[in-house]
Amino acid sequence: MRNPIIGGNWKMNKGSPSEATKMLKELIPLVKKIKSVDIVVAPPFTALFSTIQIVKNTNIMVGAQNMYYEEMGAFTGEISPEFLKDLGCKYVILGHSERRDIFNETNDLINKKLKKALNSNLNPIVCIGEHLEERESGRTKDVIENQFDLTFNDLKSEELSKVTIAYEPIWAIGTGKTATPEQAEEIHIFIRELIASNYDKKTAEIVRIQYGGSIKPTNANELFKKENIDGGLVGGASLHAKSLYEIIKAAEISFNK
Ligand code: PGA
Nearest Cα to 61, choosing from 84, 91, 31? Predict the structure, then answer.
């Protein structure tokens, strides 16, 4: 059985160690009794060190929001997976639509980062999802299949098993417009079918597929009840301890039902 994973993607917010620490000091006691959900917070790089210190010996894990695929060298402004690993990061988010759209990251680049992350024993959370016009013109599944093929190109099934796929319809990110549980479930099933046909049924059962896009305490329950939705990647609502906790709680309830 897949246990749910909730990722808090803070984006370019709460990057000062004091702000991050304040939020985490509220979150830690709230989530103390959560057993079945993998909880990951992904603050900006500048708050990673303080976050790792403060969540030590708790059930919260830490992820980075990005990395480069080289270990070291002349890559001004980039962060290597070795640095993240050494710091104590367990997860890394790759291919977020903001990286793809604002910073022109291609499927090929994300594929290189993904292989490197796996090699470095970081757990990747890889985002895929369609734009509004792609959905409206009925191309959602083609877009997802293309991203799947290129982003996960040349991965072994043991490697894919370690990946969390975040299905994030871009029209739902930061817009307050959530996919309905049925819309999300349809694509989650489709992604699982892609895994089964490109790899095998067993791998398709193992890989966690989380939903992302305007998850809130008020819609989390209905989304997580769906059989193929294994938690969520949360942006805006992950900036506040109470709303993030309520979403984590919804994931715990969905798992134990
Ligand atoms: P949102 O962001 O929850 O603010 O829509 C989700 C994401 O970008 O991962």
Answer: 91
Phi (first) and psi of residue 95, to 5 degrees:
70, 25
How far, in Å, from the CA of 172 to the mean position of ligand 1? 8
Pocket test for ligand 1, best of 41, 98, 234 (most atoms within 8 A of CB): 234
Tell me whether residue 168 is one of the annotated catalytic residues.
Answer: yes
| 3-class SS of residue 166 | strand
Q: How far apart are CA 153 and CA 109, in angstroms?
A: 11
In the chain, at which residue ranges do the beta strands (DSSP E only) sit?
5-9, 38-42, 60-64, 91-94, 123-128, 164-167, 208-212, 231-234
Rounded Cα–Cα distance for residues 111 and 148 (Å): 10
Tell which residue, 99, 65, 57, has the closest CA to residue 238: 65
CB 217 within 8 A of CB 175: no
**70: its two tokens:** 């080289």
State the distance from the centre of ligand 1 to the C-alpha of 13, rounded, in angstroms: 12
pTM exceeds 0.85: yes
Structural domain containing residue 234? 5-256
Tens of pLDDT, residue by residue over 88-141, are 999 999 999 999 999 999 999 999 999 999 999 999 999 999 999 999 999 999
- Per-residue confidence at 26, pLDDT binned at 50, 70, 90? very high
Give how many domains the chain has, as a whole number. 1
Eight-state DSSP code of residue 12: S
How far apart CA 71 and CA 44 sit, in angstroms, is 20
| Ligand 1 atom at minimum distance from 93 CA | 9
